[in-house]
């Protein structure tokens, strides 16, 4: 089934098989998805500003050129609001070539966290006053 130049706003799809569906050049602002399987989904060249993902599995997920867009288009306008992660597991994850300027990490388990070859947990312990060490 193919839809072109159709206004499907306010549509509702319930218990539908949309596997292998391709969506191009569409406005999905305000779209809501609940209890969906998006395994293997690929999103590119998209504006995901104010995207909220809650209660999702993300093992094997790959995020690239997020927050500042495609590096090949450095002059393009991008949303400057900071990205927020809460109650997420980055266990055994890898973060490369990311900008953490003014980032704030609170109540995070940093066991084994290594940044550019430096064990951060050990570094912090070197700067904690002796009376505060466990």
UniProtKB/TrEMBL annotation:
SUPFAM superfamilies: Pentapeptide repeat-like (SSF141571)
Pfam families: Pentapeptide
Protein name: Uncharacterized protein YjbI with pentapeptide repeats
Protein's organism: Paenibacillus favisporus
Taxonomy of the source species: Bacteria, Bacillati, Bacillota, Bacilli, Bacillales
């Amino acid at each position: 089934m193919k839809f072109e130049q159709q206004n499907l706003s306010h549509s509702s799809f319930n218990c539908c098989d949309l596997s292998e569906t391709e969506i191009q050049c569409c406005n999905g602002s305000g779209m809501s998805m609940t209890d969906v399987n998006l395994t293997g989904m690929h999103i590119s060249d998209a504006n995901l500003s104010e995207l909220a993902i809650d209660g999702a599995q993300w093992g094997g997920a790959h995020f690239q050129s997020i927050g500042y867009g495609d590096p090949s288009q450095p002059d393009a306008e991008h949303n400057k609001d900071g990205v927020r992660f809460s109650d997420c597991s980055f266990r055994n994850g890898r973060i490369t070539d990311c900008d953490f300027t003014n980032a704030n990490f609170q109540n995070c388990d940093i066991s084994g966290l290594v940044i550019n070859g430096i064990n951060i947990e050990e570094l912090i312990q070197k700067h904690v006053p002796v009376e505060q060490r466990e």
